[in-house]
Structure formats: structure tokens, C-alpha cells
Design goal:
alpha+beta; 322 residues; 16% strand; 32% helix; 3-stranded mixed β-sheet; single chain
């Protein structure tokens, strides 16, 4: 474990859940000569992008940055200067004195839980045919056996002939997750170019040792040959898995909460229609919402618990640097 954070989020404070499954929680860490910092994922927004161009707007943005910048360590992050964790073509400039290294960290566990639900539950109208059954998730590391899903194969909730290997599912979760930090890095690179500053986007970096020097908890798998898996930094960035949840069932409940059947609420008048982009009435929004089935929730928990039982951990954070 690394140094204890000097200023961190209260233990148990969860990142704000988005209303959809394709954008998992992401936090921006960075280090310079003065320390290691993270922008609180619960930080607010400057609002209208045009306002950020005014003097008051810039002051607001700077105030948000200062108010939501948390100190993790009081010195530059001590990343070993070798390959790995760095790649040879990055050694000349990466994390050198006078530079700032930005490290977006994204939560693969959130993406993986959401994808499992979408692949197995036809009611979510995503990857399973709406008039058919969910996909049969199998463990291709162990003779393609059902990944905790035999009960739902027997009931017909899943289609035994429509196979989805776990290795493919996990890669898909990574692809979904990595798009956000990639765009963060691209936007920062464009900003440095616009300001006339030098910048360098890391296209190759081994993140496990970087997580270790950041102070993340690292879990060693039990039954499979795999690298140790970082699961979170206490009180700052915590994945949707134990030890930050009491069980995988609780983690799944937290991720899938926005997809539960809506509780009856008093009727509200429709919003007036007009030439405002991206605005729909409350009625249209409700009619277009999808809800997960009870079998979908329980089956998702079964797959997640299968992964936990197999490895003693659950795929969690990953990084991309610039």
C-alpha cells in the first residue's frame, strides 16, 4: 500500500451513478512536482460551455477545480523508470521533473456488470433479441462450462445455443470502458496544443504497478493463472465489488438500480414543446425507458458470483495516461 491520502473522500461515499450503462464512473488522477491529486468524481460542472469563455465562467471553472481537487500524496508519483511499467518509447519524457502526468482511471467492474445484464436479459432490448432469450455466458477457460447460469439455461431464460465466452465478454467491457479515458486524453492533448504547451499521449503503459504506487488495494486471484487485480483506493475510487460492497449481489443491485421498474409517482404536466434540442416530454421519457426483469437481476448476480468464486476478485479499475 502507498502513503495514506492527505485529503480524501469520506469512506463509504459512492460515486454518482449515471442513468445508463455505457459510461462507467471515471476519475482523473494527476501528478506533478508538488504531489498526486484526483478530481472528485462528484464534482459539479461549469454548466453552459459558452459561459466558460467569460471572465466569470473561467473563475467558476477554476473554483470548481480548487474545491474538488483532492490530495492523494504530497510528492510526485514514484513510477519505476523502467519497462514495464513504462514503455521504452515513453522513458525519455514520462513523469519527468517539471511535467504533469494525467491518469484517467475507469471502473471496469461497473461496465462488466452492466454488460452482463444487457447480454442475458431480452427486456433491456440491447444485445439479446427482444422476442427471444438471453445469451449463454460460458467459461472458455474451463471447457466452456456455464458461468453460473445452468438454472437459467434449464428454465429457457437463456439460449443454450447462443454462446458468449467470458473472455469475449471481459474484452467487450474493456472496450466500452476505455473509450472514455481515450477521449479525456485526446481533449487534454488538444488543449495543450491550443495553449502552445508541449504534450505527449501515452499509447502504451502497464498500469498494475502504477496502481500499486498510487496506493490501490490489489487482490491476488486464487484458482486461475492471472495477474493481481487492483480494486480501489479507499474513500477515493472504489470498484463495484468486495471489499467496497458486502457482496457481489449488493454491487449488482447498486449498478442496476436505475433499471428497476419505476415506482408510481404523481403525474406531472408535460413540458412545453419548442425548438429546444434534446428536450422531450416526461411522458415520452417514461415510455422509452427499459426495465430489467427479476430473472435478469438474479442471473446477473449468478454470473458475477461465479467470477468472484473463481478468482477471489472482480475485474476493476484500469488506466490511460497523457
Amino acid at each position: 500500500m502507498g502513503p495514506k491520502p492527505a485529503h480524501a473522500l469520506p469512506v463509504g461515499r459512492r460515486p454518482h451513478l449515471p442513468e445508463h450503462l455505457t459510461w462507467p464512473p471515471t476519475a482523473l488522477f494527476f501528478t506533478n512536482d508538488r504531489g498526486v491529486y484526483v478530481i472528485d468524481p462528484n464534482a459539479g460542472s461549469t454548466g453552459n460551455i459558452r459561459e466558460a469563455g467569460s471572465r466569470d465562467g473561467r473563475a467558476q471553472a477554476l473554483g470548481l477545480y480548487r474545491d474538488h481537487r483532492l490530495t492523494v500524496q504530497d510528492h510526485r508519483l514514484e513510477i519505476p523508470r523502467r519497462a514495464p511499467p513504462l514503455c521504452g518509447h515513453n522513458l525519455w519524457d514520462s513523469n519527468m521533473p517539471g511535467s504533469t502526468l494525467f491518469i484517467p482511471v475507469c471502473d471496469v467492474s461497473f461496465s462488466l456488470i452492466g454488460l452482463i445484464a444487457q447480454f442475458i436479459d431480452a427486456r433491456l432490448e440491447r444485445f439479446a433479441a427482444t422476442s427471444g432469450c438471453g445469451m449463454n455466458i460460458v467459461d472458455d477457460r474451463f471447457d466452456f462450462r456455464p458461468a453460473g447460469t445452468q438454472e437459467w439455461l434449464n428454465s429457457g431464460f437463456l439460449d443454450g445455443g447462443n454462446i458468449l465466452p467470458l473472455s469475449h465478454l471481459e474484452r467487450q467491457a474493456c472496450y466500452f470502458t476505455f473509450s472514455e479515458p481515450a477521449m479525456i486524453c485526446q481533449n487534454m492533448f488538444l488543449a495543450t496544443e491550443a495553449m502552445g504547451l508541449g504534450g505527449w499521449m501515452h499509447c502504451g503503459i502497464m498500469s498494475r504497478e502504477i496502481f500499486e504506487v498510487l496506493g490501490f488495494k490489489v487482490i491476488v486471484p486464487r484458482q486461475v493463472s492471472a495477474l493481481a487485480n487492483p480494486v480501489g483506493l479507499d474513500g477515493i475510487f472504489e470498484a463495484y465489488c468486495p471489499p467496497y460492497f458486502s457482496s457481489m449481489d449488493a454491487a449488482v443491485d447498486a449498478v442496476l438500480a436505475p433499471l428497476l421498474p419505476a415506482k408510481p409517482t404523481p403525474a406531472t404536466p408535460d413540458q412545453p414543446q419548442g425548438p429546444v434540442p434534446y428536450l422531450i416530454t416526461d411522458t415520452e421519457h417514461r415510455s422509452g425507458a427499459v426495465e430489467i426483469s427479476e430473472d435478469g437481476i438474479v442471473c446477473t448476480k449468478a454470473v458475477c458470483n461465479y467470477l468472484m468464486t473463481l478468482t477471489a476478485d472482480f475485474p476493476a479499475p484500469s488506466t490511460q495516461c497523457t
